[in-house]
Structures are given as C-alpha cells and as structure tokens.
Amino acid sequence: MPSLLSKTEIDVVPVAPRLALETVVESVDQEGRGIAHKDGKVIFIEGALPGERVTYSVYLKKTSFELARVQQVLRASSSRTAPKCRHFGVCGGCAMQHHEHTAQVAAKQRVLEESLARIGKVHAERMLPPIHGVPWGYRQRARLSVRYVHRKARLLLGFHERKSSFVADMQVCEILPPPISAMIEPLRGMIESLSIRERLPQVEVAVGDSLTVLVLRILEPPTAADEVHLRAFADLHAVQIWLQPKGPESAHPFHPLDAPELAYRLAEFDLTIPFLPTEFTQVNSALNQVLVKQAIALLDPQPGERIADLFCGLGNFSLAMARRGSRVVGIEGSAALVTRARENARRNGLTAATDFQIADLFATTETSLGALGKFDAMLLDPPRDGAVEVVKALDATAPRRIVYVSCNPATLARDAALLVHTKNYRLIAAGIVNMFPHTTHVESMALFEK
Fold first, then answer.
1. Could you tell me the pTM of the whole model?
2. Any catalytic annotation for residue 407?
3. 13 pLDDT exceeds 70?
4. What pLDDT shows up at residue 162?
C-alpha cells in the first residue's frame, strides 16, 4: 500500500501517464477518503484531503462512482501533516495521520452532520462542541496479530496491513501507550523463542489503571520451557500474562497470579469498574471519562427517576446514573456481561439502585419493551448495527428524553429519522467524540426529547 510521505508528493503504485487524472478534492467521506466529482461521477480518492489539487489513478469503476488512489499532490491542504508513525500507509490501524488532528475532528463532525441530514433527513437544534483529547498513546485496548513467516525466518507482530489479511511488520505503534509500543519488539522476540510460536495467532492488550494484561491466544499448550520464557517476560515488563486456549470465556491468568486488579476509574462519579481483559471496554479511557460525564449531563438523571440503560455492558453508564440517585434498569444480551455489571454494582455499593437483566435487544417488540415498565429517560449505547428495533418498539409511554451514544453515524441517522419523524421526538443536540484519533471511526452522541 502507498506510504504518504510529505506535503507535496505521494508516491503510489506507478500508473501510465494516460491514466493519471487531475481534480480538486471537495471533502472527505466516512472512510477518510477525499471526495471529488468528475463527469457526473463521485470519485473517492484514498490519501487526498479537502481543498487539494491532486492527480489520481482509478482502481475500481462503477456506474455512479469510482475508487482511486492519489498519485501526486499538486497543491497541498494546509491541514496536511507528516505522519508520525513509520508504518503509516502499510499498517491498517490508522488511515488519517496525514490529516492534522484538529482538522480530523472537524471532518468527523461534518460526517455526523451530513449523515443526519442525508440519511435521517434531520438536523440537530444545536451541535455540541466536539470532544477530543491527546492524539497519541491513547489506545488502551488492542488486538495484535501474530504470524511466523518461514521464508523470512521472522515473526510478525502487529495490526493487519490496510485492506489485507497480511500482518504489518511493526516495531512501534504511536497510538498505543508508550510502554506498550516499546514492548512490541521484546514481545516479538519472546514469542519467537517459544516452541508454539506458530500456534499463537493473537495477542490482546488490555491496559487498566493499575495493571496491563497480555492475553495470548494459544492453539496448543506451552511447554515447560515456554512457561519459563512467559514468566520471565511478565516479570521483566511488569505485565500479567493470560492464556486463551479456546473462546474468550476460556481466557485465564497465567502469571503472576497475585497481580493487581484490572479496572478503570470514573473519578467524576467515584466509581471503580473492574473488567476482564477479553471484555468490551472503551479503548480510550481518558475520553471515556468525558463521554460518560457528557452523557449524564445531557440525560440529567434525577433522584427517584427510573431510567433504562440499553446495551449496558459492564455498567459504564448505568452506575454513573445510579450514583446520581436514579433507579437504573440495565439490559444487555450477554449473560456474562450482565453478571459482571451486577458484580460492579455490588463493588460500588449500588446494588439496590440497579437492576441488570438479560435480553436480546435486536429482537425488541412493543410487548417486550413494555414489560420492563415505564421509564423517565433512556440511554442507548448499541453496537454498529444501531438500535432500530428498540426505537420501533417505543410507544405512547416512551421516555421523555433519550441519549443515544453511537459508534456509527449511519445507523444513528437512520434511528434518528424514526425518532423524529414517527415517534414525535426533537433532536435537541448532537456531536462527536473523537475516541479513535487518526482512524476513520466516528463516535457520537445525540439528545432527543419529546
């Protein structure tokens, strides 16, 4: 894949001069590609930024659009910057390092606004100021692939290459916390020394406030000699190693067994939330604190109110709402996560204020939602597919206000259309949370009121 090298030139796969086309880029799309129009078609150009004049080569043609790559930047955007990471352009972990950080934030806000307008035919009465934090060293959750390549006699450790199943040969990663980035090469060497190096396809990284865990996915047990290497690495780098022989539920601590608790704090709400290294938590702990604070401020839970937290996970939002004195009913499809949420409520003294239940929210009906009782407010935090069945099931007893936390602007816009056009809600406010700097991922939040 191409490496974006400078403000003035981007070299890609050579093309014949007759195939080099020229255009001015108008905007960027949700995938971080430049958008231009030529001969009645939309051209999506990888590596191009708004306002730039570029030459490009097309690699896929369709009736209404074409996909292309930048060949050369003739006039660079003022927001173009030199990528910090040496692996940029090859590694698929980031796609926007050539775009200055604050300009990335502005582009993502535009993606949200355009998705709401184009897909949902709705407009927020006010746009919330974008939430963003430090752009480097933020990623506290990661899944690194491992592959031993015989012809190179080398073990590869890293994210996948862009649009490929190949593993990027990484030595550092600028979006991982510096201690984790510095651990990549020693970790590669340790895994290379194991007898099961070809039976170890993945390392999952989970960083808590007091502990870092490395979960090694193993397809056969380590030998006694392997165990010596694993213990020595864990002790030297002050991490805890877990082994995962089968699915996520099989993951278990290996060494040391007396490590501190893996947990994160929500200081604003005096909460400590333990989690297992294979469980879902936000990858950006610092931004998660701001995310929860803003969601609670928008929802404005009051003492004595009954509030639904749908897709509640570990209780990231539920426990914060309960700390404000509300009675919270958390619903989650995973029995394991519901168990963990109940444990986290007990840990924080909030058992009496919370009720966590198991339900398939993608099969919600008016009957199943009505069986939960009447709510004063609701928080939705669905996966990428959104919460369309929940929204469809809302009836005349629906809560007066809803905060919707989304990781996909398209499904948020689709559900917003239902809420506004069929359920009589107003879209009061919306804005983005740049949870994943340098990637095209857009996290957002919206407030709806009757």
1. 0.91
2. yes
3. no
4. 86
